[in-house]
Design brief:
Length: about 750
């Protein structure tokens, strides 16, 4: 919160009334005594008495200086009992009850009567431009200001007045936060008091803090038709009929304050979506990134954009500039798609939507664009239109928080303040308390967010799109991720990989969504956990190497710039790690393609009478019948529409394995060897498989991986996979029967082998 200068407080509404008009009014009105220089507000008395006196004073000012400019445009002053509002049901921290509210009620193109179900039908915030209070507590006004922003979505800012017997304080709310004026003596500065009241009740909507590019036709006190004027693709102003307002719920006033409007082009009749938001001035404008993403499947497509719509610093005292983050009003017009994946109607629909959004994300982070989204969430993935082809069955939107990599700034540091808390990666959440070198936010963090979107979908919804009870195990797990404290959110979210929540989640998905989705959930979770551990290890390695470089001799400074650059690239452990980016996406997309193909196969070829049938518990949470989510898994289905092939895993029968007692999580739990891109040695997690390669097999695979990750100047040795023990026994019996003389090699147990520090 910032505080203005006294000069600003006296000049903020300087143009709304002339000096001679105010002087004439003060000598004519009965509510002000020029000799004693005092308004007709008693210096003491009951709350109701003060409210009545203040209401009368305000009404005399409004009726004199606020004049209607058109039919249906009016301003009146009334009182509102705060007990009728949910925002005022609680006492403040000092135990004081909320004070009564003096409301300047408005009618006009931006104001409507509240619904008839409201307790006070003519006194809702939807038709109150500003309000005054007789109690000087800024915190008391914030809920009311937030309500105004919600019910008047074309609001740029809200100004309120805190009024006591002798003083007033103007409070300004906008998307950058709160700003207040110093206390103003209303008796010693009656002209300032008159200007403030006149400005708060102005019939000019821009003065009130409203965006007048959005206008409404009021019929019987309700908004019936609306229009939005903005730039069209050719850059000329054009007015579009409003079909629907799409609110984006926010818990706070400060922030992006996004509002969306579904409109129709009056010429082509195409439906479009206009997005209004407030971005920090230090961030790249979304329309610049959307221009780069033109014709990229799986990413929202922009039609036009409008600049120069204002900044929060324009509404504030110039002396407070730099004391808060300035935000810039942004407006983009985009093609219209379906609703968010929160409104899916089938398992196949939501899997296709998430899959194509991941593919669109891969194209964004490609070397051609280098755009990292950083705010993957269920609200930022839209369902494509009915019958949409592959690639646009799901569309990624909202690049407000996206980062564009450049040669000068190749990466961005992870920040737990950016993104949607439920879907933030563990690496991003951990930045709340990481000493030393902070990790970069990379594409793996966004892929992890996609996993949480999938987990959210499976745990919070049923396969038919309806929501599970908030008391069920699934929603309870997810709700713990949405903690404003990043430390607590990290602790709860990490348990999905290595804790009791992971066991419960796997059982919930298996029971509710069936084996196909359970397999996808488990494999994706296992792979994501592996990638997270590998990235953390590489990050630690980089930190160690940088510390060693700082302690090295100055002899290295003699190298040429080209040699230094070449050495830096070769020595950076993340260079090799990120070189597998396309393979990482291929594996994740392959998991979704496999699940999608199985759904389609089960719908085209229903299981025979002798095929295994899912347990009855799988149907209990669904729509009552056996759906695609309950179809049995028939084996691995190759991807038919996946343009990046999934590397096949090593054959299980060619490796030595040791059986462990099953955890009874899912009958089709994947093994680590299903994923050739992940490290094969790490502590097992609840989502991990129960069949592990034997120690010797793991070491051989790790050695092969180590050779592949080494410099390419020498080829990696070919690994010979040892046949299973049963295969060797069979071969020996065959050789004995055929009298083949084969030299025998005695097997001996050796001490544990160490490869790259891993036993």
């Amino acid at each position: 919160m910032t505080t203005t200068t006294e000069e600003y407080a006296h000049s903020i509404y300087r143009r709304v009334a002339q000096d001679y008009e105010i002087e004439s009014f003060l000598h004519q009105t009965d509510t002000f005594n020029p000799e004693s220089r005092r308004w007709a507000i008693p210096p003491s008395g009951t709350i109701n008495g003060l409210v009545d006196a203040a209401t009368q004073v305000l009404w005399t000012i409004v009726s004199r200086f606020v004049r209607s400019t058109g039919a249906g445009v009016t301003r009146t002053v009334t009182t509102l009992n705060p007990d009728s509002l949910p925002e005022a049901q609680k006492n403040d921290q000092a135990g004081s009850a909320p004070s009564p509210i003096v409301v300047i009620r408005a009618s006009g193109p931006s104001f409507e009567e509240p619904p008839t179900t409201t307790v006070w039908p003519s006194k809702s915030f939807s038709n109150g431009p500003e309000m005054g209070s007789v109690k000087e507590v800024v915190q008391e006004m914030e809920p009311y200001a937030r309500r105004i922003f919600e019910q008047q979505p074309n609001r740029l800012f809200v100004r309120c007045l805190l009024l006591t017997e002798n003083h007033a304080r103007l409070v300004h709310f906008d998307r950058a936060g709160v700003e207040t004026t110093p206390l103003i003596d209303i008796h010693q500065h009656p002209d300032t008091f008159v200007r403030i009241i006149t400005g708060l009740a102005s019939v000019d909507e821009r003065t009130l803090g409203l965006d007048d590019s959005i206008q409404w036709t009021i019929v019987n006190g309700r908004k019936e038709k609306g229009t939005l004027t903005t730039t069209n693709p050719s850059g000329a102003l054009k007015t579009y009929p409003i079909l629907e307002h799409i609110p984006i719920p926010r818990d706070t006033i400060a922030g992006r304050g996004t509002n969306c409007w579904r409109v129709r082009d009056p010429d082509s009749l195409d439906e479009l979506v206009v997005k209004d938001s407030w971005r920090p001035d230090y961030m790249v404008a979304e329309h610049e990134l959307l221009e780069l993403a033109h014709d990229i499947p799986g990413v929202v497509q922009m039609v036009s954009y409008e600049t120069g719509r204002g900044e929060t610093k324009d509404f504030r005292c110039p002396n407070t500039a730099g004391k808060c983050h300035n935000r810039v009003a942004a407006r983009t017009m985009m093609k219209s798609y379906g609703k968010s994946i929160d409104f899916f109607t089938s398992a196949l629909q939501v899997l296709c939507a998430i899959r194509d959004a991941i593919a669109g994300h891969q194209r964004l982070v490609s070397d051609d664009l280098k755009i990292l989204h950083r705010d993957i969430s269920h609200n930022n993935i839209l369902i494509g239109p009915d019958g949409a082809p592959e690639g646009v069955r799901g569309v990624l939107i909202d690049l407000d928080a996206a980062f564009k990599a450049t040669n000068g700034l190749p990466n961005v540091t992870a920040d737990f303040n950016i993104g949607t808390r439920i879907f933030q990666s563990l690496c991003v959440l951990s930045t709340y308390d990481i000493p030393g070198l902070l990790p970069a936010h990379d594409y793996l963090d966004d892929l992890e967010s996609f996993f949480y979107v999938l987990a959210y979908t499976f745990l919070v919804h049923l396969p038919n799109g309806s929501r599970a009870s908030s008391q069920d195990e699934g929603p309870s797990i997810v709700s713990r991720w949405d903690n404003p404290n990043a430390s607590i959110a990290w602790r709860h979210k990490s348990r999905i990989f290595s804790g009791r929540d992971g066991l419960i989640a796997a059982k919930v998905v298996e029971r509710t969504w069936g084996p196909i989705c359970s397999s996808l959930f488990t494999k994706f979770g296992d792979w994501m956990s592996d990638m997270r551990h590998e990235k953390l290890a590489v990050h630690r390695q980089r930190g160690t190497e940088e510390a060693n470089e700082d302690d090295s001799d100055d002899d290295e400074d003699e190298a040429s710039d080209g040699e230094e650059e070449h050495r830096a690239v070769d020595s950076d452990p993340f260079t090799l790690f990120y070189s597998r980016r396309d393979a990482h996406y291929a594996y994740v997309l392959g998991l979704f393609d496999e699940a999608i193909n199985k759904f389609r196969s089960s719908a085209t070829h229903p299981p025979s009478a002798t095929a295994p049938v899912a347990s009855s518990t799988s149907n209990s949470a669904g729509s009552g019948g056996t759906g695609p989510g309950d179809a049995p898994v028939r084996g691995r289905v190759p991807s038919s529409d996946h343009h990046i092939p999934d590397p096949p895993p090593p054959a299980a029968q060619d490796m030595e394995v040791e059986q462990e007692p099953p955890l009874n999580i899912t009958p089709h739990a994947p093994t680590l060897i299903d994923n050739p891109l992940s490290p094969l040695v790490r502590p097992p997690s609840p989502l991990q498989c129960v069949i592990q390669p034997r120690r010797s097999a793991r070491i051989r695979v790790l050695r092969q991986k180590h050779n592949e990750d080494s410099t390419t100047t020498r080829p990696s040795p070919v690994r010979t996979i040892q046949p299973r023990r049963s295969a060797r026994t069979t071969k020996r019996h065959r050789e004995e029967d055929e009298h083949i003389d084969v030299p025998r090699v005695k097997r001996t147990k050796k001490s544990p082998t160490t490869v790259n520090g891993v036993h």
